[in-house]
Amino acid sequence: MKTILSILIILSIYISVKAQDTTLNRMVVLPFISNGIDPFSVQTSESILRMELSKHNNASIVSEKKTLAVIGNEGCTDEECAREIGQKLSSTEVLLCKLSPLGEKIIVQYILVETTTGKNILSESATAVNLEDLDAVMKRIAISVANQTPFKSNQEVGNIVKQETIIPLSQAARFNFGVGFGYLFPSEGYNDDKKSFTLNIYLDYEIQDYAVGMMAGARDGFAINLYGNYLFSRTDFCPYIGGTLGFHWVAHDELLLIDPYYENGGSEKDADGIEVGVNAGIRLLHTYNIQLFLNVEYIVTFNDYKDKAIVFTIGILWKRFRLNLFTKKGNKLIKHIVFWRLNESAYGNDKQTNAQILKDKLLAMQGKVDGLLKVEVGFDFANEKDSCDVALDSEFSTKEALHQYQVHPDHEEIKKWLSEIRYERRVVDYEI
Questions:
Q1: pLDDT for position 20
Q2: Other beta carbons less than 10 A from residue 177's beta carbon
Q3: pLDDT tens, position by position, 7-52
Q4: CB 104 within 8 A of CB 378
Q5: What is the mean pLDDT of residues 65-92?
Q6: Averaged confidence pLDDT in the chain
Q7: What is the pLDDT averaged over residues 72-77?
Q8: Which of 248, 262, 378, 416 could form a disulfide with 275 if both were Cys (CB 3.0 to 4.6 A apart)?
Q9: Domain check: are 383 and 293 in the same one?
C-alpha cells in the first residue's frame, strides 16, 4: 500500500512539473491593417483567424477587448510597436497582419514577433484571389502561425486556397502534341504473333483533372482512337486511368473463312472493326512544357478474328499552344489600360465608394462584347503624389473588338457617369 501511495505521489509531482514546463504561449493578435478593403470584410477575416488560432492547444489568445484597450486610437503598424504592446499585455508572441489589394487579388502579409527579443519568428505572405477566398486563407495562416511553419508547407486536402489551384490549372489547360512507341502483345488473334512494334501520334488536350484527345498509330495495321483519361494528380507525378474508342484496320494473313453455306465454299474474313479499350498509366514532369508518359492498354477489336491485345507504350508530350476561342490565327492581342484620378466626392458618394462602383460597372462588361477576353480593375494603395486611384487592365482579341467595346451602349453609359467622378484620365493601347 505504501509503495502504491509513493508511486502516486511521485506521478503527481511529475505531472505538475510537466504542466509548468508546457505553459501555453500567450499571443496577441493585433487589429488588421488594411487599405482599400471594406472594414466589414477585414473584421470578419480577423475574427476567423482568432477563432482558428484558439483551436490550437499551444497558444492562449489575448482577448480583442484587452488588446484594443492597450492600443487605443494610435494603431500599430510595425514590429517595434507590436513588441511594446506584447510587453504591456505580458504576451510571449504578437501577430501583425496586413491586407493589401492588388487588382482582384488580396495580398495578406503576416509577421509573428517574439516579445522578449523582438525577433521575427515568422514572416510570410499569402494570396486570396477574392474576398470569399479569405476564409480559406485565414485558416491556413492559423496553421502556419500555430506550428510556426511556412504558409505553403501546410497545403492539405480540404484547405487548398484558390491561388494554389490556378497555377496547376493554367499549366494543365493546354494542347499537347505527342509521339509514342512500344509493343503490342496479342492475347487472341493477330495471326498468333508474339508481339509487334507500334508507333503512335497523339493530339492531347488537358483541362483540370481530365485529358482527352485522339491517337493515330501503326499497331499491327492502322488504328485511330479517341481517348479520355482521369488525372489523379496535378503534380509532376500524375497517374491516370481511362478508356478508348475507335477503329482498327488490322493486318491479317488469312483472308478466307471456309463456310459450307456459301456456294464458292468460302467467304472473306473481315479484319477491320470498332475497337474499345481500357488504359492506365503515368505522366511524368506533368507541370512542365515537356512531359513523359508510360501507358498500358487492353484493346478489343470487334472483327471476325476477335483480336485482343495488351499494348505497352512510352512517349513524350509537349505543349503546343493554349486554346483561345476568340483570337483569329495571325492576329495579335490588344491591351487596353486606363488610369483614373477621382474627385473626392461625386453623386453623394466619397472617392472610395465611387471607385468600387466603377469597378463593378467595368467588370459587368465581361460577356457583353465579343472578343473582350479579360477585365481586371485595381485600386491604388501607395497613395503617393504620382499615384492614380483606379486602374483598368483589359485584353481584346482584335482592334475591332476594342472598338466595339468603346461604342457599346453600356460602355457609353459608364463614360458619361465617369465624367462626373474623375478629373484626370490616362490610357494606352498596344499589341502583344
A1: 43
A2: 15
A3: 656 655 555 544 444 446 789 999 998 877 888 888 889 999 998 8
A4: yes
A5: 86
A6: 83
A7: 77
A8: 248
A9: no
11 in any annotated domain: no
CATH of the domain at 227: 2.40.160.20
Same domain, 231 and 345: no
- Flag whether 8 is in a domain: no
What φ, ψ does residue 9 adopt, rounded to 5°? Answer: -65, -45
Q: What percent of the chain has pLDDT over 90?
A: 39
Based on the domain organization, do 264 and 287 belong to the same domain?
A: yes
| Domain end marker among 165, 186, 219 | 165
Beta-carbon neighbour count of residue 122 at 10 Å?
Answer: 19
**Closest to 328 in 3D by CA, of 398, 394, 386, 268:** 398
Determine if residue 192 is left, alpha or beta; phi over 0 gives left, psi from -120 to 50 gives alpha, anything else beta. Answer: left
At 262 the pLDDT is: 46
Smallest CA-to-CA distance from 339 within 388, 395, 405, 383 is with: 388
Distance, CA of 375 to CA of 373 (rounded, Å): 7
d(CA 313, CA 293): 8
Contact 154, 147 (CB under 8 A): yes
* pLDDT surpassing 90 at residue 370: no
Neighbours of 110 (CB within 10 A): 22
203/138 same-domain check: no
CB-based contacts of 83, cutoff 8 Å, min separation 6: 94, 113, 115, 118
User: How many domains is the chain partitioned into structurally?
Assistant: 3
Mean pLDDT of 383-387: 88
